[in-house]
Amino acid sequence: MPKSARKQEKDPDGRMPLAEHLRELRNRLLKSVLAIVVISAVAMWQYPAIAHFVTGPVIDAVGCPDTAAGLGPRTHPCAQVTANGLLAPFTIMLKLSLTTGLVAASPIWLYQFWAFLAPGLHSHEKKYALTFVGAGAPLFLGGAYLAYAVLPTTAGALVGLTPSEWTNLFPADEFLDIVTRMVIVFGLAFELPLLLVLLNLGGVLSGRRILGWWRFMVLGITIFSAIATPTGDPLTMCLLAAPIVLLFFGAVGICLFNDRRRQRNNPDAELSDDEASELDLTPAPVAEIEPVASHRMLPEQASGDSGKDEPPRRNGYDDVT
Q1: Cα(150)–Cα(231) distance, rounded to whole angstroms?
Q2: Alpha carbon distances (Å) from 5 to 2, 122, 156, 298
Q3: How far apart are CA 243 and CA 235, in angstroms?
Q4: Quick check: 311 and 320 in contact, CB under 8 A?
Q5: Distance between CA atoms of 234 and 240, rounded to whole angstroms?
Q6: What are the C-alpha distances in Å from 120 to residues 5, 16, 21, 124, 319?
Q7: What is the distance between the alpha carbons of residues 186 and 253, in angstroms, rounded to a whole number?
Q8: Would you give the DSSP letter of residue 171?
Q9: FRET label pair with 314: which of 16, 58, 137, 290, CA 20 to 30 Å apart?
Q10: What angle do CA 27, 33, 34 make, to 5 degrees?
Q11: Is residue 314 helix, strand or coil?
Q12: Going by C-beta distance under 8 Å and a sequence separation of 6 or more, which residues neighbour residue 255?
């Protein structure tokens, strides 16, 4: 592995030549890709357990009973997960392993991304970036867990619409695509409140302005949930939209609190660059007048002597005053 460019030549301001930046980017990308490949290889070795973890809740919710095991026929509609084609099990194993490696290696490649950007950031920008990384990961995991938790309920509601004389077959590759899309969509949607808070901390948006957009935000979140959910059913849409709306109002409360704190520290904090601040025109009390000592006169002024071309002086002054 090549040495990091910043280890060869350090600059207190984080400045580097273009070639060193490209070498540093290459090293960071190699480390990230290596971590994803290693974890994907381990996931491929544990593929049956991971596949059962992903599909198990849905199969338990809507799976058809095994008649060979002595279980009677199911009275309500059920479904079976199938692998269509000779190469389907292999491609599904690769897809699931790579997805697992990408998600499980996220702390590593996020750190590499942060380490590449950190030297070029100011101190307050580093603080905001650390806040984003520290709060973004739990929010993303919370959205992903919500998608995983509501998927059996959603599948049961959709399968329940099947007529009794029909049979449902879930192609495994399509089913895993739906699971992956739901996890990613739910996880990214939970990052919206964090983005609003960071824009407020950076002084881009005020809490009052964000609160004034609440009608459009609720409508936009609802439309986004209807489009982004792979299943397209109202239940999943509501389960996605409701937490995001609650997180949005929670972010508005944080922004308003931050604006109030900023207003106490700086009354002109919310003014734009081309807006003049209010001036305090209240007259201030005048302090007591201090006596000022007179300067000592020059010798020629004290004696009254003057030049030929100058007017005569009296008591050091050049006129009768």
Answers
A1: 12
A2: 9, 20, 54, 72
A3: 13
A4: no
A5: 10
A6: 14, 10, 11, 12, 70
A7: 22
A8: E
A9: 290
A10: 85
A11: strand
A12: 196, 197, 200, 205, 206, 207, 210, 211
> Can you tell me the distance from the alpha carbon of 1 to that of 18, in angstroms, rounded to the nearest whole number?
20
β-strand 168-171 against 79-82: which pairing, if any?
A: parallel
Tell me phi and psi for residue 58, to 5 degrees.
-70, -40
Tokens of 14: 């984080």
Local confidence pLDDT in tens for the 321 residues of the chain: 445 444 455 555 556 677 887 888 889 899 999 999 999 999 999 888 988 888 888 888 777 766 444 455 555 677 788 888 788 888 888 888 988 888 788 778 877 877 777 666 667 666 766 777 777 778 888 888 888 888 887 787 778 777 777 778 888 888 888 888 888 788 888 888 888 887 887 777 888 888 888 899 889 888 888 877 766 667 777 877 888 888 889 889 988 888 888 777 766 655 666 666 666 667 777 777 777 666 555 555 555 554 555 555 555 555 555
Query: How far, in Å, are 21, 144, 219 from residue 121 at the CA level?
Result: 15, 30, 36
pTM: predicted TM-score of the whole model, two decimal places:
0.63
Q: Residues in the chain, how many?
A: 321
Structure tokens at 157: 């509601």
The identity of residue 18, as a single letter, is: L
Q: Write out the H or E segment, with its range, that includes residue 169.
A: strand 168-171
pLDDT of 102: 84
